[in-house]
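Q: I'm building a small set of examples for a reading group on sequence design. Run inverse folding on the following structure and report the sequence directly after it, with nothing in between.
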């Protein structure tokens, strides 16, 4: 079985001295069965997770949406008293989810995150049973958004992002590039089955906002996405070129889509725009 895909499914946990920690039970189950799947799944599992997710202390709901969108959230684990019933603040709930394995934790920066596709699937299962209708609408539309992107249909991508950002904005309380980045992460949720998604990828001349690296044998192109607020999609696209973001994909051979996305906070009718260009790796502009 492919190592990269195994990592995307079951890697992601980390200890202070070990950067890659897998869920051993799931890895063994995958190797025995010969296919990748969510081996945590059971009725008790996602119903228990839903109980914790619905405790909306201090914006916990917003934090979960951000993490499902590929971002990280700051958490203070020191307040937790090892009590699974009495919670007073959102940090208590997040810390419990870290202990239970539903979240990864980076002790160096004190941030929690959803570690891999297996656990993301558990959050999706818990959301599907009610109370998270806005997020579920975005996730269900993500397959079409990816198809529109791969067809270089910038107009359809912009329309899809309009809807996704509107849904996410009903939960998030801020309206900036972080909010846009979260909306993008959720809007392209279905891409995780074929891609490794990297936010803020170092390129030598800056950071590419979002990079989609295709998993082996998928036959799909890589995507480099640049986000801009109150600037044009053309500006975002030009930044990818000017700063040579494609150089971060050294070793990759194949088609690359450059995707510039902008969000105009002052335009209520069509706040998003998108420009997409296709190139082969190593071709000059």
């Amino acid at each position: 079985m492919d190592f990269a895909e195994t990592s995307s499914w079951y890697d992601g946990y980390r200890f202070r001295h070990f950067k890659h920690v897998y869920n051993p039970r799931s890895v063994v189950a995958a190797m025995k069965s010969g296919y990748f799947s969510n081996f945590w799944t059971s009725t008790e599992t996602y119903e228990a997770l839903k109980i914790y997710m619905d405790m909306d202390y201090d914006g916990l709901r917003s934090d979960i949406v951000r993490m499902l969108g590929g971002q990280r959230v700051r958490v203070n684990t020191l307040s937790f008293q090892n009590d699974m019933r009495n919670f007073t603040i959102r940090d208590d709930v997040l810390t419990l989810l870290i202990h239970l394995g539903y979240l990864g934790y980076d002790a160096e920066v004190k941030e929690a995150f959803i570690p891999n596709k297996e656990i993301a699937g558990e959050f999706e299962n818990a959301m599907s049973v009610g109370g998270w209708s806005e997020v579920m609408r975005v996730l269900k539309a993500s397959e079409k958004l990816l198809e529109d992107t791969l067809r270089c249909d910038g107009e359809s991508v912009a329309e899809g992002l309009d809807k996704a950002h509107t849904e996410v904005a009903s939960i998030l309380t801020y309206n900036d590039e972080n909010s846009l980045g979260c909306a993008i992460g959720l809007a392209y949720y279905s891409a995780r089955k074929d891609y490794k998604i990297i936010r803020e990828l170092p390129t030598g001349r800056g950071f590419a906002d979002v990079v989609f690296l295709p998993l082996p044998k998928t036959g799909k192109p890589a995507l480099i996405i640049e986000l801009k607020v109150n600037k044009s999609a053309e500006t975002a696209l030009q930044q990818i070129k000017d700063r040579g973001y494609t150089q971060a994909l050294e070793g990759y051979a194949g088609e690359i889509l450059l995707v510039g996305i902008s969000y105009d906070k002052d335009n209520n009718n069509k706040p998003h725009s998108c420009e997409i260009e296709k190139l082969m790796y190593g071709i000059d502009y």
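The chain has a mean pLDDT of 83.
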